[in-house]
Design a protein that fits this description.
single chain; about 425 residues; Adenylosuccinate Synthetase, Chain A, domain 3; Adenylosuccinate Synthetase, subunit A, domain 2; 2 domains; 10-stranded mixed β-sheet; 20 strands; about 20% strand; binds inosinic acid
C-alpha cells in the first residue's frame, strides 16, 4: 500500500503531526504539500530520556526519523528564518538533518519579509472583518504566487536572477506597503538580507516533483502530510475565513506535481470534539462551561500563535462534507481522552437550515453561520483513557461513542489517540 495522504477533516489542529510521525515509521518519504509555518504540528516522542515535545511549523513531521526522506514540495511557502530556526533547535538537541534527509523544491515560494508586514497590515486595517490569520505572511505569499510576483527557491540561488525578480516586484509591493502605512523595502536591502539564507538553503534544494514522482513509480511508500483542515481550504472551506492553500487531498497533486493516481489511501484526522482558531462560522461552538472544560482539558491553545481555540462538540455534518471532498479511506480520532469526565457528550448529527434538514454541511460561510446543529446526546464516562492501548479496554460508553462517530461519518476508524505521546495510540488498521 504505497501512498497515503493525512488530511485534517475539521478546521485544523486535529493532531496530524502525531499521526504522520506514527505512520512515518512505515514509509520512505514524508512530503508536505501546502501551507507554511502557519501550521503547528506537535510530536511527543521518547528517544530514551523520557517524553520530549517537538513543535514543527515547517519541517515535515517525519523529521525525527533519520532514515526517511522528508520533502517540502512546491506547494509549501517557505519562511527561511523559521526553517533555519527549526533546524537549529533540532541540532541543539543532537538531531542533525543532512541535506539528503530534507529536500526542498526549487519551485517553492519564499515568504518575504514584506509578506509578513502586508499580512499584519491588512488584518490591522480590517476591523471587524478580520480573518484572524496567523500573521505569518502566508496569504500575501500565495497571492504573489498566483499574481506571478513570487520569489522562488530557485530565484534565491542565483543572485542575478534574484535581482531581476526583485526589480520586477518591489515597486508593486511598495505600493501595497505604502497604502497599508508600512515601511517600504528596497531591492538592495532585500538582496543583502536573503544572501545568507540562499547559501544555507542551497544544499537542500532539489527537483522534488521528479524525486517524489520517481519514488511513487518505483513503489516506495510515500506519506503526504496535510496542514490546516478541509474547512480551511481556500476553494472549499468557509471562504473568506480560510487559509490561502488547497488543504484537501487534491492539494497533493498541484502541491507536489504528482498525478491523481498517485493518491491511494486518505486518512482524515479529526478530534473527538471540534475546535477552530480565528474568525468564521463554527456551528457546534460552545460558549458555556463545557466549552471551557474542553479548552482546559484539551490544552486548546494554538501551537503557532498561542491563541485560545474555540471549542465545541463533534460535528458529523462537517466531517461528512470533508469526506465528500477527500474520500477518506479511514479516520484517525484524536484526543478521545479529553472527553473523560463529562456526564453527557453531544454529537451534531445534521443541521437545520432554512426549514430543511441538512446531512452534509454547506460550507458557504453565510449558510454555515445560519446552520443550527441537531444534537444527539450520549452518556459520558469517568475513566481516564490515557493508558488504554486496546479497544476492548475502553469503557463501554467510549466504545459506543466511537462506533457512533464511524457510523455517522460513514468511514472506518484506523487510529484512536488517547494522549500526546507516540505510545498513546491504538492503531486499528495500518494504512501502509
Ligand atoms: P493564515 O493561514 O495565517 O492566512 O490564517 C487564515 C485562517 O486559517 C485563520 O483563521 C487561522 O487561524 C487559520 N489557520 C491557519 N493555519 C492553521 C493551523 O495550522 N491550524 C488551525 N488554524 C489555522
Amino acid at each position: 500500500m504505497p501512498t497515503c495522504v493525512v488530511v485534517g477533516a475539521q478546521w485544523g489542529d486535529e493532531g496530524k503531526g502525531k499521526v504522520v510521525d506514527l505512520f512515518a515509521e512505515e514509509c520512505d518519504y514524508i512530503v508536505r504539500y501546502q501551507g507554511g509555518n502557519n501550521a503547528g504540528h506537535t510530536l511527543v516522542v521518547d528517544r530514551g530520556n523520557g517524553p520530549e515535545k517537538t513543535v514543527l511549523h515547517l519541517l515535515p513531521s517525519g523529521i525525527l526519523h533519520p532514515d526517511k526522506v522528508c520533502v517540502i514540495a512546491r506547494g509549501v511557502v517557505i519562511d527561511c528564518d523559521v526553517l533555519f530556526r527549526e533546524l537549529d533547535a533540532l541540532a541543539a538537541r543532537g538531531i542533525g538533518v543532512a541535506p539528503a534527509q530534507l529536500r526542498i523544491d526549487l519551485d517553492a515560494h519564499i515568504i518575504m519579509p514584506y509578506h509578513r508586514d502586508i499580512d499584519l497590515g491588512r488584518e490591522a486595517a480590517s476591523g471587524d472583518a478580520k480573518i484572524g490569520t496567523t500573521g505569518r505572511g502566508i496569504g500575501p505569499c500565495y497571492e504573489d504566487m498566483i499574481g506571478r510576483r513570487g520569489i522562488r527557491v530557485r530565484d534565491l540561488l542565483e543572485p542575478s536572477r534574484l535581482l531581476d525578480r526583485l526589480q520586477a516586484v518591489v515597486p508593486d509591493r511598495n505600493a501595497t506597503l505604502r497604502w497599508l502605512g508600512r515601511p517600504e523595502v528596497t531591492v538592495e536591502a532585500l538582496a543583502a538580507q536573503l544572501a545568507p539564507a540562499a547559501e544555507r538553503l542551497a544544499p537542500f534544494a532539489a527537483d522534488c516533483r521528479s524525486l517524489v514522482g520517481d519514488a511513487w513509480r518505483a513503489g516506495k511508500r510515500v506519506l503526504f502530510e496535510g496542514a490546516q483542515g478541509t474547512l480551511l481550504d481556500v476553494g472549499h472551506g468557509t471562504y473568506p475565513f480560510v487559509t490561502s492553500s488547497y488543504t484537501t487531498s487534491a492539494g497533493v497533486c498541484v502541491g507536489v506535481g504528482v498525478p491523481p493516481r498517485a493518491i491511494e489511501k486518505v486518512v482524515g484526522i479529526t478530534k473527538a470534539y471540534a475546535t477552530r482558531v480565528g474568525a468564521g462560522p463554527f456551528p457546534t461552538e460552545l460558549f458555556d462551561e463545557d466549552g471551557a472544560q474542553l479548552r482546559a482539558r484539551g490544552q486548546e491553545f494554538g501551537a503557532t500563535t498561542g491563541r485560545p481555540r474555540r471549542c465545541g462538540w463533534f460535528d458529523a455534518a462537517a466531517v461528512r462534507y470533508a469526506h465528500r471532498l477527500n474520500d477518506f479511506t479511514g479516520l484517525a480520532i484524536t484526543k478521545l481522552d479529553v472527553l473523560s469526565g463529562f456526564d453527557e457528550i453531544k454529537v451534531c448529527v445534521a443541521y437545520h437550515l432554512d426549514g430543511q434538514r441538512l446531512e452534509v454541511a454547506d460550507a458557504d460561510a453565510v449558510s454555515l453561520q445560519r446552520s443550527v446543529p441537531i444534537y444527539e446526546t450520549w452518556p459520558g464516562w469517568k475513566q481516564d483513557l490515557t493508558a488504554v492501548r486496546r479497544l476492548e479496554d475502553f469503557p463501554a460508553a467510549a466504545r459506543a461513542y466511537l462506533e457512533r462517530l464511524t457510523e455517522l461519518c460513514g468511514v472506518p476508524i484506523d487510529v484512536v489517540s488517547v494522549g500526546p505521546d507516540r505510545a498513546q495510540t491504538l492503531v486499528l488498521r495500518q494504512p501502509f
